[in-house]
Structure formats: structure tokens, C-alpha cells
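Researcher: Following up on the earlier apo prediction. This time include the ligand. It's NAP, with the SMILES given after the sequence.
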Amino acid sequence: MSETTTLRPGGEALLAGRPVARIGYGTMQLGELPVHAGAEPDEAVALLRHAVELGVNHFDTAQFYGSGFANEMLRRALAPFHDDIVLVSKVGAKTSPEGTGLVPAQKPHELREEVDANLAGLGVDRLGAVNLRRTGGGVGLQSVGDQVVDLDDQLAEMIALRDEGKIGGIGLSNVTLEQLQQALPAGIVTVQNSYSMLDRSDEPLLELAEREGITWAPFFPLGSAFPGFPKVTEAPEVQDAAKALGVTPAQIGLAWLLQHSPQMLLIPGTRNLAHLTENVDTGRIALDAATVAKLDALAGDQR
Ligand SMILES: NC(=O)c1ccc[n+]([C@@H]2O[C@H](COP(=O)([O-])OP(=O)(O)OC[C@H]3O[C@@H](n4cnc5c(N)ncnc54)[C@H](OP(=O)(O)O)[C@@H]3O)[C@@H](O)[C@H]2O)c1
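Model: Understood. Below is the ligand-bound prediction.
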């Protein structure tokens, strides 16, 4: 496998007790559904190895990304995983029986089955942390009928998985402020909600995470590849700031996030090697107070 480096992009933070680079990588873009819309295996392997060469050691993934494709690529590129690589996955959904989409998998036994599927897919016996991805409310998949499951019942299963050593820490994804408060006694180590410079409606959750020493690893940090979500790189003020500083708009979006909170971990997704390099390089950019103030104003009164 590729050599790791001690230079950590964006500096280091602790995730479930393990040091991770604050700039990580999210694998969803490697294996969008349907699976054939994702990256070619050779490209995916090269990209993941390059991420490690650049100092990335935190990978956010899911067994349902590309019906197992993303995890297979991680395994092919990086196994046997170096001790310092932290694999974070998520449960709460699974590939649909037809293999063309996702369905909720919120029941406690389904959470366990998905943890086991991740362990098998990645070829490891323990995951650094696992996010319980709720499907009621928020973004994306919704739950109906018996897929509306009590949070405490889910947390009990996650705690059992942690006690058994299958997962190193419990995270939450797509949750409300009340759900985060309710879950705190379980020992939450990370939260993964949709959040970016342009989408700051979950600022109160981030503030709670900061007070509790919980890492905040938002999904859609650049506004995602999906239509209908505000794209950070398209905001004129972001483009102006990029021009003024001689960097790219994506770097402005990511640098703002890093500076916004010490608990912030970045997991931008890309299947483009140049974009990966650019994203990792964001760690060297310091935004001045006037630029931050202008960018802060973009979210309006959401926060
Ligand atoms: N918990 C959840 O429910 C959930 C949901 C969604 C995602 N996630 C996780 O969060 C990660 C990040 O979310 P995401 O990938 O959906 O959205 P994102 O990181 O906000 O955006 C990805 C999009 O940005 C583009 N991009 C990335 N770097 C760029 C750069 N330097 N310049 C220009 N464009 C750039 C990518 O295109 P290119 O490929 O062309 O670079 C892609 O279209 C995912 O990979 C996944 O691990 C979690």
C-alpha cells in the first residue's frame, strides 16, 4: 500500500480517540448509484492512494455507496490498512433489492447487519466510528411504517456494537438538535449533517457539538453533486474571494469551514485527482477577517 505521511492536511483532530487529518475524503462520489455511474476501478484506486500520500487518513464511506463499490475500492487501494487510517462508515440505509437505489434500514437488527456488511466489504474487524444515519426528516431518504424507529432503541444497538469492539465510536447523521441532545449520554463522537457556508441551518447543532467536544464532519460541504442544493463554488462572493487570494472557489468554501470551527472535519467528495489535490491543499489557506465577514454574511439569517 501507499506510504503514509506525518504531515496532516488541515492539522489534526481527535475522532473517536484517534488523530485524524482535519481534511479527509468522502467516498460517495466514487460509487454513486447506479454503480456504473461511478469511477472506473483503476481511477478510484489511484485517487485513494494519492489521498493517503497527501496525508489524508480519515475516509468517510458506506457499504451502500455504489452497492459495495466504494468499500471495495478502499480495500483494493489501501488494504492492509495502516494503523493510522480511520475508516468511518454509516448505517441506516441499504442498497434496494433491485440494486438501483437505497432503502431505509433503520431497525436495530438492520443496523447490525450493515455494520457487518461494512466490516466484510472493507475486510476489517473494526470500524473507526459508525454514523447512525437517521432517515426521518432532514435530507434524502424518508422512513414510513416500521422503518420509523425509536432513537433510543437504535442507540442501544450501536452501544452493543461498540461494546463488542466492532465500532470504535458512535456518530449521528441527519439528526435534529433534540435528537443530538437525547443521544449525548450514549457518548457521541461525531455528527454528520448537511452543512456548508451557504447552508447553515444546523448552526445550533454545531454549537452543541463544540460544547461537547464532538467532531462535526458535514456532508455536502461544497453543496453536493445533486441539483437543488446551493453550490458554494457558484456564489459570486466566493468566486471574488478566490480571485483575490489566487485560489479556487472550492478552496474558499473548504477554508471557510476549517476556520469556522475547531471541531470541523472535512470529507469533500470528488472523483477528480486535481480536485482532490486542491481540496487537501486547502489546509495552507488562511482567510483574513474581512473575507470571513463577507462569507459569513452569505447564509443570511439561517443561523
Ligand atoms: N450522511 C449522509 O447522509 C451523507 C450524504 C451524502 C454524502 N455523505 C458523505 O459526505 C461526503 C461529501 O458529500 P458529497 O460528496 O455528496 O458532496 P460535496 O463534497 O459537497 O460535493 C461533491 C461535488 O463537488 C465537486 N467537487 C469536489 N471538489 C471540488 C473542487 N476542488 N472543485 C470543484 N468541484 C469539486 C465534485 O465533483 P468532482 O468529482 O468533479 O470533483 C462533486 O460534484 C460524501 O462523499 C459522503 O462520504 C454523507
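Model: The longest strand covers residues 86-91.
Researcher: Noted. I'll compare it with the apo version next.
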